[in-house]
């Protein structure tokens, strides 16, 4: 949801008092391929988010290719639907050039915004004068964190999925950044962007879009000394 901006507002989150005007929320839906994209647009989504071949949190999904970005943008613009490209994994040193290439391609295709969590991607967006949002992977759960990302140039924050509605209201009162919140997410039991269970057990990192969701399996606690099940 986007709040009206006021002139001469304080940079400190605690002093900010946004207007009380209500705004219609922007409804955003995921789109992993053309079938999903068209379905989301037809169903009335105001915006869609999607990834390309690499560096997004749906590594196992089909995803789009970079070459498809102009067509995606053209289609969505014709329907007055905004486009958000996810570039929201951890980015390693040897991937920086690739990340920038994706940003440049997105800007050229007139994609509306990038969604990122790694600050390197935020810096590359600033370098290329491309607007970006901070992903839920950054676990933003308070207005002070929001103010930090605002100083870094973010235009929107996607709050941690663990925030309650009351917590979201409090954050809204203390920042003029656009706020996005998940209505329905992955139902993950771990804090957004902080889980290493899949990586520890199977070498597939949730923070690289590779999570195989071991937290959803049934487990047995077994006492090897007593040779009996405890739970």
Detailed description of the structure:
- By secondary structure, this protein is an alpha/beta fold.
- The chain folds into 2 domains: 13-186, TIM Barrel (Alpha-Beta Barrel); 195-231, no CATH class.
- Helix content is 28%, strand content 13%.
- The protein has helices at 34-42, 69-78, 96-108, 119-127, 143-151, 165-173, 197-202; strands spanning 28-30, 47-50, 82-87, 113-116, 132-134, 156-158, 178-180, 222-223, 228-229.
- The protein has a 7-stranded parallel β-sheet, with helices on one face. It has a two-stranded antiparallel ribbon with strand order 8-9.
- Strand 3 (82-87), helix 3 and strand 4 form a beta-alpha-beta unit.
- Helix 3 (96-108) packs across helix 4.
- The longest helix is centred in the middle third of the chain and has 13 residues, at 96-108.
- 32% of the residues are buried.
- The model is unreliable at 1-14 (pLDDT under 50).
Which descriptors apply to this entry?
globular, two-stranded antiparallel ribbon, alpha/beta, single chain, TIM Barrel, disordered N terminus, 231 residues, 2 domains, 7 helices
Tell me the layout of helices and strands.
Layout: E1 28-30, H1 34-42, E2 47-50, H2 69-78, E3 82-87, H3 96-108, E4 113-116, H4 119-127, E5 132-134, H5 143-151, E6 156-158, H6 165-173, E7 178-180, H7 197-202, E8 222-223, E9 228-229
Parallel strand pairs: 1-2, 2-3, 3-4, 4-5, 5-6, 6-7
Antiparallel strand pairs: 8-9
Brief overview, please?
This protein has 231 residues and is of the alpha/beta class. It has helices spanning 34-42, 69-78, 96-108, 119-127, 143-151, 165-173, 197-202; strands at residues 28-30, 47-50, 82-87, 113-116, 132-134, 156-158, 178-180, 222-223, 228-229.
């Amino acid at each position: 949801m986007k709040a009206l901006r006021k002139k001469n507002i304080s940079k400190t989150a605690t002093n900010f008092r946004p207007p009380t005007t209500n705004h219609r929320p922007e409804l955003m839906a995921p789109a992993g391929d053309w079938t999903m994209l068209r379905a989301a647009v037809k169903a009335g989504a105001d915006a869609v988010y999607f990834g390309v071949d690499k560096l997004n949190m749906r590594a196992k999904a089909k995803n789009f290719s970079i070459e498809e970005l102009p067509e995606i943008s053209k289609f969505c613009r014709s329907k007055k639907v905004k486009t958000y490209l996810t570039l929201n994994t951890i980015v390693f040193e040897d991937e920086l050039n690739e990340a920038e290439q994706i940003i440049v391609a997105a800007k050229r295709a007139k994609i509306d915004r990038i969604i990122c969590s790694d600050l390197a991607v935020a810096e590359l967006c600033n370098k290329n004068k491309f607007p970006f949002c901070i992903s839920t992977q950054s676990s933003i759960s308070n207005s002070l964190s929001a103010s930090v990302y605002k100083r870094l140039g973010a235009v929107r924050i996607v709050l941690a999925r663990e925030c309650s509605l009351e917590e979201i209201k409090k954050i809204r009162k203390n920042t003029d950044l656009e706020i996005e919140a998940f209505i329905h997410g992955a139902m993950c039991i771990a804090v957004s962007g902080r889980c290493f269970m899949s990586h520890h057990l199977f070498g597939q990192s949730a923070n690289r879009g590779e999570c195989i969701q071991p937290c959803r399996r049934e487990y047995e606690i077994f006492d090897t000394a007593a040779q009996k099940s405890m739970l």
